[in-house]
């Protein structure tokens, strides 16, 4: 029973991170119809940028902020420089460009920061809360993880629902031509969309790194989990991505706890294939027809 | 001049391709006999990259299905070969054939799922395959050797082959050279089969499915079956490539089949030009001969060995992006454009 509770709690906090990552993928997909396979590598890179800052004696929060700002800039640059020419073209070309970015950023991180495992600090304790006589797998850091993902989701919802900027971004995602006719600077909105998505991705990278070891490939599996979560949620809906993230987090936590951690990625593949074959439009979307 | 050349080339496609393969064999023998053992082992490495890339270029270039899972399929072939060669009783050609068959069977399963996906969905699913499959080797560590992997008994040259080799070249037949011969002969056979397939009926219908699904379906083609077939052919090539890899590297371990391997193969076919077998060969040559050059440059510029080793994947990534942005047809696409321009100018003057 205690093991089950612990696995569930662990799954929830992991799921919150996958939810954030899936959210980043969904933001970009909605705006540009591109799955950003470089998202994980970009998040890894910005997390690495925070590490020397923290190690040189700055506070964790300075590094945290630096990584998020770096994510914003990196996202905007990537969209403007390398993605813009392939947007709207053959979908294979865009996929290949993001994969090129993925491999280049990963190698660049290994060149700049070394390919070894390095420990990344956590701002809060990593010792579980005690309930009665048991220590449960729910730490102050888990609270921080879930809290920050919640804050990001609320902020994004507020942005898209209640601000003029959000309305313009939604409009350019919905129909580029009409928005352009109405005077929306669509190109600028797309750049902004990528930038925001990269910030959310960077946050996911920081949260996974916290209290763990980082190395240039530590986000590889997370791309897969985030992608599965986003597809589970229907790729279109931010709410679906969050629900998908939590479901994937829980499911993979059970697989890892009861079957073996080596099988987690394969389990994710199984879930993905099952979802795509049985209900390709995802569990949480109202769009009737979608080609996968 | 061109007319004379054209008359010399046989009409039949099979004959023409066979002629090409025989010419290729002559070149292979000449090159392998005149280069050092180190170069021989580089050529052996190139042969397995080229086998996998040739299969991938058929799948991605001709049929329009992207696969980031070919590294995982190579792992299936490599582990099959390693297991079969363990006892020492199975001859290696049989082990290679078995590797191709087993990987093709895996390809049926993956292809059946892949046939219903396209573009980013297929990329994501096969990415999951590439990241997930090495975990199997660790999960079944009793059979597959866990992180350390399985060591492979590389075949030794049999007496008659060594004798024939000595008779022809009067040179020693080293282990690396023998493996390079195995790899390149396999590659030539694969290229012959794929070239015939591509020029024939299946190549045509695969292209039709890639270019316009609806039109192809209206013309009575069964999209699912054709897509699965393309995947199976491509998977069998990846399995053969894995078998050659296992024998050349003498090891089948999870660390050899990372996502970087799959992405390197993709780089090779994209840079060479999607859908072109010469392009795939060119791209695999790049995968083998570029890293040492780049690494040397890196150490010359003051990087440590570990850092310099990462320069090659960095260059792959940058090249992948640049090629897609500036010349999506790859090297073969550029050459084709130049060739056409040359013909047009020749005609007008």
From TrEMBL, chain A:
- Tell me the GO molecular function terms: transmembrane transporter activity
Recorded hits in InterPro entries, A to Z, give: ABC_transp_permease, BCAA_transport_permease
- Compartments, as annotated in UniProt: Cell membrane
- Keywords assigned by UniProt? Amino-acid transport, Cell membrane, Membrane, Transmembrane, Transmembrane helix, Transport
Pfam families cross-referenced by the UniProt entry = BPD_transp_2 (PF02653)
One of this protein's GO BP terms? amino acid transport
Per the record, the domain of life is Bacteria
Q: How does it sit in the membrane?
A: Multi-pass membrane protein
Q: Which family does it belong to?
A: Belongs to the binding-protein-dependent transport system permease family. LivHM subfamily.
Would you tell me the protein name for this molecule? Answer: Branched-chain amino acid ABC transporter permease
Q: Which organism is it from?
A: Prauserella flavalba
From TrEMBL, chain B:
Q: InterPro entries, alphabetically?
A: ABC_transp_permease, LivM-like
Q: Does the keyword Ligase apply?
A: no
Coiled-coil segments, which residues? Answer: none
Q: Does the keyword Transmembrane helix apply?
A: yes
Keywords (alphabetical) are: Cell membrane, Membrane, Transmembrane, Transmembrane helix
Where does the record say this protein resides?
Cell membrane
Source species, please?
Prauserella flavalba
- List the GO molecular function terms: branched-chain amino acid transmembrane transporter activity
Return the protein name.
Branched-chain amino acid ABC transporter permease
Instruction: Cite the PANTHER family for this sequence.
Output: HIGH-AFFINITY BRANCHED-CHAIN AMINO ACID TRANSPORT SYSTEM PERMEASE, HIGH-AFFINITY BRANCHED-CHAIN AMINO ACID TRANSPORT SYSTEM PERMEASE PROTEIN LIVM
- The main location class comes to membrane
Read off the Pfam families from this record: BPD_transp_2
Tell me how this protein sits in the membrane: Multi-pass membrane protein
Q: Which GO terms describe its cellular component?
A: plasma membrane
Q: Which residue windows are transmembrane per the record?
A: 12-31, 43-62, 69-88, 94-114, 121-140, 178-197, 228-249, 255-274, 281-302, 314-335
Which residues belong to the signal peptide in this entry? none
């Amino acid at each position: 029973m205690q093991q089950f509770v612990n696995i569930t709690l662990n799954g929830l906090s992991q799921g919150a991170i996958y939810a954030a990552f899936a959210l980043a993928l969904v933001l970009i997909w909605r705006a540009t119809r591109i799955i950003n396979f470089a998202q994980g590598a970009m998040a890894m890179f910005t997390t690495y940028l925070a590490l020397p800052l923290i190690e040189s004696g700055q506070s964790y929060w300075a590094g945290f902020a630096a990584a998020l700002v770096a994510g914003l800039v990196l996202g905007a640059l990537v969209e403007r420089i390398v993605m813009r020419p392939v947007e709207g073209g053959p979908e294979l070309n865009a996929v290949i460009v993001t994969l090129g970015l993925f491999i280049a950023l990963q190698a660049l991180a290994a060149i700049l920061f070394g390919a070894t495992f390095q420990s990344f600090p956590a701002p809060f304790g990593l010792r579980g809360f005690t309930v009665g006589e048991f220590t449960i797998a729910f730490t102050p850091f888990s609270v921080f993880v879930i809290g920050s993902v919640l804050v990001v989701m609320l902020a994004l919802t507020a942005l898209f629902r209640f601000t003029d900027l959000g309305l313009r971004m939604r409009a350019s995602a919905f129909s580029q031509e009409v928005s352009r006719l109405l005077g929306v600077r669509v190109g600028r909105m797309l750049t902004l969309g990528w930038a925001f998505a990269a910030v959310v991705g960077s946050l996911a990278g920081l949260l996974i790194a916290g209290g763990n070891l980082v190395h240039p490939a530590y986000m590889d599996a997370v791309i897969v989990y985030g992608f599965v979560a986003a597809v589970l949620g229907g790729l279109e809906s931010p709410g679906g991505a969050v629900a998908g993230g939590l479901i994937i987090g829980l499911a993979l936590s059970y697989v890892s706890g009861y079957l073996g951690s080596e099988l987690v990625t394969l389990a994710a593949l199984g879930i993905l294939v099952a979802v795509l074959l049985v209900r390709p439009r995802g569990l949480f979307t109202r769009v009737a027809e979608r080609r996968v | 001049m061109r007319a004379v050349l054209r008359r010399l080339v046989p009409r039949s496609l099979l004959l023409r391709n066979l002629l090409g393969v025989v010419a290729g064999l002559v070149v292979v023998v000449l090159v392998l006999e005149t280069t050092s053992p180190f170069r021989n082992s580089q050529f052996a490495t190139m042969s397995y990259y080229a086998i996998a890339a040739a299969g991938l270029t058929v799948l991605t270039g001709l049929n329009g299905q992207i696969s980031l899972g070919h590294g995982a399929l190579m792992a299936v072939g490599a582990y099959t070969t390693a297991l079969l060669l363990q006892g020492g009783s199975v001859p290696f050609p049989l082990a290679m054939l078995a590797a191709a068959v087993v990987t093709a069977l895996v390809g049926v399963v993956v292809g059946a799922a892949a046939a219903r996906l396209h573009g980013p969905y297929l990329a994501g699913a096969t990415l999951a395959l590439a990241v997930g499959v090495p975990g199997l080797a660790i999960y079944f560590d009793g059979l597959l050797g866990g992180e350390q992997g399985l060591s492979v008994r590389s075949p030794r040259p049999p007496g008659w082959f060594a004798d024939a080799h000595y008779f022809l070249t009067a040179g020693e037949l080293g282990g690396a050279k023998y493996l390079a011969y195995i790899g390149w002969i396999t590659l030539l056979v694969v290229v012959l089969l794929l070239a015939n397939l591509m020029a024939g009926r299946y190549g045509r219908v695969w292209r039709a499915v890639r270019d316009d699904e609806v039109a192809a379906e209206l013309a009575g083609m069964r999209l699912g079956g054709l897509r699965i077939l393309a995947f199976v052919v491509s998977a069998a090539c990846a399995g053969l490539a894995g078998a050659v890899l296992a024998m050349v590297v003498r090891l089948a371990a999870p660390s050899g089949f990372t996502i970087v391997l799959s992405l390197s193969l993709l780089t090779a076919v994209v840079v060479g030009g999607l859908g072109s077998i010469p392009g795939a060969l060119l791209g695999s040559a790049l995968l083998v001969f570029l890293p040492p050059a780049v690494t040397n440059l890196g150490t010359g510029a003051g990087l440590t060995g570990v850092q310099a080793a990462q320069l090659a994947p960095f260059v792959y990534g940058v090249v992948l992006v640049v090629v897609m942005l500036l010349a999506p047809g790859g090297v073969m696409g550029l050459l084709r454009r130049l060739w056409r321009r040359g013909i047009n100018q020749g005609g007008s003057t």
